[in-house]
Amino acid sequence: MSVEISSLEYKHRDTILEGIVAVDTATAQPRPVVLVAHAWGGRDEFAVQKARDIAKLGYVGFALDLYGKGVRGSNKEENSALIAPFLEDRLLLQARMDAAVTAAGSIPQADASNMAAIGYCFGGLCVLDLARTGADVKAVVSFHGLFAPPGNLSARKIKSKVLILHGYDDPMASPDAMLGLAAELTEAEADWQIHAYGNTLHAFTNPAAADPAFGTVYDSVADQRSWRSMCDFLKDSF
């Protein structure tokens, strides 16, 4: 297996975005595409590595870009400033995700009829909104994501299968918020699952997370369990 990495520029309105494509070059056959939505700091090496890992599973991995080419945060203050416009304007968030789906469909090895999206932290919210808008994706997976529903969408049926991988003690998505999401997904007639990991905080998949006071702590067991669950879920969805 030889995973090749390349960049893909695309646009939303006047913003130039830069995603990273990861694909196994051992075969030229079209294959399903899995978008990777980044956390609040922007499209970083963590997201790119997840795209590589996705490619190793036999899919096309696409680490999308929500903020703009080269736009990254380097601390909590900068990250908060980057995420704020998207939390305040969910239509903007949803439009950026739609642009990423369109870009992913243009990848030469992509089977555009078979798409899924996974997301981490802020990216988890993004993939949930992708499903909420009725996008033509088979499945979405949220890793320690945010759950707040958007205010710009009326009730509608969710076509995508939904998997939530969640730290039960995550201070950014309380148990009540988790139950609220379950009720929302049920009302939308979604095929949904929630896996809640006990004694687990936010950002449990990120080895660099080590800030208990902020609620972000890596957990190797939850990390491994959640990845296995995602792998099974994607196989079932495609």
Overview of this protein structure:
With 238 residues, the chain is of the alpha/beta class. The protein has a single domain (3-237), classed as Alpha/Beta hydrolase fold, catalytic domain (Rossmann fold, 3-Layer(aba) Sandwich), CATH 3.40.50.1820. 35% of the residues lie in helices and 27% in strands. The chain is built from 6 helices and 10 strands. The chain has helices spanning 45-56, 76-88, 90-105, 122-132, 175-187, 220-237, and strands at 3-12, 15-24, 31-37, 60-63, 110-120, 139-143, 161-167, 192-197, 210-211, 216-217. The protein has an 8-stranded mixed beta sheet, sandwiched between helices. A two-stranded antiparallel ribbon has the order 9-10. α2 (76-88) packs across α3 and α3 packs across α4 (122-132). The model has no long low-confidence stretch (mean pLDDT 96).
